[in-house]
Amino acid sequence: MTVKKKAIIVSLSVSIILMLAKFVAYFITGSNAILTDAAESIVNVIAGSFAFYSIYLSTQPRDENHPYGHGKVEFFSAFVEGILILIAGVIIIFKSSYNLIYPHAVSKLLEGTLIIGITGLINMVVGLYLINVGKKEHSITLQADGKHLLTDTYTSVAIVVGLILIQLTNIIWLDSLLSVLVGFYIVYSGYQLTRGSVGGLMDESDFTLVEEVVSVLQEHRHNPWIDIHNLRTQQYGPEFHIDCHVTLPYYFDLNQVHREISQIDELINKNGVRRAELFIHADPCLPACCHYCHMSECKVRAEAFKKEIIWTPEIVIKNKKHFDNELL
């Protein structure tokens, strides 16, 4: 069993147990705030089940129908989880708003407070565990599930504080008010998760990865690498793809071009950057490149070297060679 599968099974099992515990707390107390937490736990279980399937699917090898693998399903999983959180938050807001106008009695809040406090602590531990594994395995699904559990932890803390205030003040409507506030926070969390997953599905650029790649290339640049541009990144679950254009001396033969491109691939994958599959297009140099080319022994140089162009993310993502005056 892979590390990712083990992590999601732990998450799903814990979510089921905690969901049952929270509903027990609700039936004991009749508290809307506790019902809010219990309802979110249903989302945890549903999302965890879907996440388990997406983890299973994303680890399947590439095939003829999926030449880039099945990793994109993790973004879809995170999107579904975000939508479920949004729906749960909206339902909680409406339900609690009604009870804010028409309050009902609550009881045994001490027992309910203890149960919610314990479940919140467990969710925090499991959430941090999932985020840690997700970052190591580059799994969007695990990170999304972990952040969801941390959201659940924050709501549990807020509910515990609210329940304590109710016991101290005996103001019953505080229960529904607290539930409404927590509902808005849940909606906001669902929006953030949905927004991130949509960005992944639409191949939104990972600027952190771009910065890592550009930093390595700039620090270890070779003289024949005259220019790098049109650098783009994509993520397919745990797999990363990078493509770019590299300007090389036009008189290099195919073996030399292949050697330089292979060195770029090896450099990126051995210097702390996440493992990635690279597609590199080689461009021949032009006379306009001479004034920033480091090839001092070049026999066809048309112009003396003037100044090196420092590669930055803002420069290398542009789809053009960098001999424009504004870049010098």
From TrEMBL:
Keywords assigned by UniProt, alphabetized: Membrane, Transmembrane, Transmembrane helix, Transport
Superkingdom of this protein's organism: Bacteria
UniProt domain Cation efflux protein cytoplasmic: residue ranges: 210-285
Bilayer topology annotation: Multi-pass membrane protein
Pfam families found in the cross-reference section: Cation_efflux, ZT_dimer
Compartment list: Membrane
Main subcellular location: membrane
Transmembrane feature ranges: 7-28, 34-55, 75-94, 114-133, 154-187
Domain Cation efflux protein transmembrane: 8-202
NCBIfam families cross-referenced by the UniProt entry: CDF (TIGR01297)
Stated family: Belongs to the cation diffusion facilitator (CDF) transporter (TC 2.A.4) family.
Name this polypeptide is given: Cation diffusion facilitator family transporter
Species of provenance: Pedobacter punctiformis
